[in-house]
Write a structure and sequence with these properties.
This is Probable membrane transporter protein. Belongs to the 4-toluene sulfonate uptake permease (TSUP) (TC 2.A.102) family. It holds the Pfam family TauE. It is found in: Cell membrane. By secondary structure, the chain is mainly α. Helix content is about 80%, strand content about 5%. The protein has ten helices and two strands, in the order ββαααααααααα. A hairpin with a 2-residue loop joins strand 1 and strand 2. The two termini are about 20 Å apart.
Length: about 270
């Protein structure tokens, strides 16, 4: 925890910690808006800055509150500037919601230490594949034109990534993006807008659970949400202006951060 006297009982962090968390929320909002993966920044910041006597669900609920509003802002910017196909977006979102719920239910029975190394291998493979194919995703060239072909593939992507989000979570937005690019032939920019809306759905499902149980530091969460929204607004505008090549670069950087985090978690699990 960062040192310093608490601001008030209803805001259980020091002034220094609050500044640190607001900065992390802004950066996370920007990253999340461009390609997903803002949780890799914001959640560790909350773990560091919030006192250890605050229960974990409150940390997770506060993170989801901030992320939800940031993703909502980015989705609004994207949807105003980029045309989406409802025939793809609807099954993607429906699959993401149901998959996230199923993953959350299964997460109680599957040890995290079993999942982390598997996900690490998957992320390394995705990063290598993207790096070795420099032209992939730079142009929006959908591979399927028939509604049926698009619907069932979008639904499967939604269910699979949604299930992962409910089960483990880190890098969910990035997995949405790479599958839309690799399977459906979307450009990185077009994949990002669909990924944002799908990720918004999974965040809403999780936020509802934490909200029902009152497991949110509301004042802190709303303060972080405001800055996260600003970061999301800027990030979405930058992505839509600079295009798929810019999104691809940020995507590879986020995957690099995710690889380091998962590798560290795996080492700690097997040596600790």
């Amino acid at each position: 925890m960062l040192d310093g006297p608490p601001l008030a009982e209803w805001l259980p962090v020091s002034a220094a910690a609050l500044v640190f968390l607001l900065l992390a929320a802004g950066i996370a909002g920007w990253v999340d808006a461009v390609v997903g993966g803002g949780g890799l920044i914001q959640l560790p910041a909350l773990v560091i800055a919030v006192p250890q006597d605050v229960a974990t669900p409150y940390v997770l609920g506060t993170n989801k509150l901030s992320s939800f509003f940031g993703t909502l802002t980015a989705s609004w910017v994207y949807l105003r500037r980029i045309r989406v196909q409802l025939v793809l977006l609807v099954p993607l979102v429906a699959g993401a919601f149901s998959g996230s719920a199923a993953g959350a239910a299964v997460s109680r029975f599957v040890p995290r230490e079993v999942l982390t190394p598997v996900v690490l291998v998957a992320v390394v493979a995705v990063a290598a594949y993207t790096f070795l194919k420099p032209s992939m995703g730079l142009h929006h060239e959908p591979r399927f034109t028939g509604d049926v072909a698009v619907v069932w593939r979008a639904a499967l992507i939604g269910i699979g990534v949604g299930f992962y989000d409910g089960l483990l979570g880190p890098g969910t937005g990035s997995f949405f993006v790479i599958l839309l690019v690799g399977v459906l032939g979307f450009g990185f920019l077009q994949a990002s807008v669909n990924a944002k809306v799908a990720n918004l759905t999974t965040n809403l499902a999780a936020l509802a659970v934490y909200g029902v149980h009152g497991e949110i530091l509301l004042v802190l969460g709303l303060a972080m949400a405001a800055v996260n929204m600003a970061g999301g607004f800027v990030g979405a505008h930058m992505a839509t202006r600079r295009g798929s090549a810019f999104v691809r670069v940020v995507f590879l950087v986020v995957l690099g951060i995710l690889i380091v985090k998962l590798a560290w978690d795996t080492v700690v699990q097997f040596t600790g």
